Amino acid sequence: MAQFACAIVLLAGAGLLVKSFVRMVNVEYGYDPRGLTIMGLPEPVRNREAFVAEVLERIHAVPGVERAAVMSYDGFGQLNFPFNIEDKPFPNGDVMVRYSSVTPEYFTVLKSRLIAGRRFDARDSGSAPGVAIINEKLARLYFSDRDPIGRTIVLSYNNQRLARTIVGVAGDIRQDDPGQPIKPEILVPWAQLPWIGATLVIRADGDALLTQKLVRQAIWSVDKSLPPGRARTVDEMLSSQVATPRLYMVLVGVFSAMAMALAAVGIYGLFASIVARRRNEMAIRVTMGARSANILWMVIGEGIRLSGAGIALGLLSALALARLMRSLLYEVSPTDPLTLGGGTLMLLTVALLSCYIPARRATRTDPMVALRHE
To answer: What pTM, to 2 d.p., does this model score?
Structure first.
């Protein structure tokens, strides 16, 4: 009973972690991560805008590169700035949102959705009126009662109050790991508000390491004095985000498998011993007319009762301990009935199979051989 109680606790935990991990790796990112590479772009002190434009032109000529763009940080939407709405200010002052400065091809490189309006293009130059694109989350939170296209927002940017007209609403792009909610985000054209740092986001076919090498060569063809930028694929980045949940899932899964194996061996050994001790009783029952099925289900029924009692005790402990796992789970309830029910069914099946072999042996007892020893 103790073995089965421990087994169901570990099995329930493993089931919850597996279900959480599956949902985490299948989460909607808002872009297509396949073939994407993020690479730091060192910039010269002078003529940064012309340098970025030339680098992008050279990178587009690299074999295998489909598209390339520049964004302000080495992750999607990792900067934060306060913002407000010009014609309807928030009663408690500015609200903090995520911020990105991007070149026009950013959305095409990511293959992200456009919900309304337009994307950035050549008309959004440094001398043009200030524009911005907001993500779907910001539109839902702050423009649920009106169309955001054409509205003016005010961005608190490095001790400046900059007015920007909303020209588009983009689909949500996940900024953090899957366990974190998507944040409201404002995106502005790189030509109008270039950030102090720059990061390339490149979509390419073929070997990622070769692409990174060729892209570095393209950057050095513009300026040989620049250091190499750190590069990683988006798949690597996403894999690192779920590394800890994966480790927890594997560890608890291994322990639950060991606990289940011990429980199966334990109940098999117990009933093998019981059948051996009660061999004479079984022989007398058969002699008195008991059928093999009666003997079989008598042994199995006792095993199931003991296992079921242990599982019931374990489920109570699992329900109490599962709540402590809430912070480790993603979109899964710690008391998920399907997971707990599946673990219970699996353990009962293990108990049934483990009891079946000794029970089958009991039905084959020869009454004359067993009673001759009396």
So the answer is: 0.75
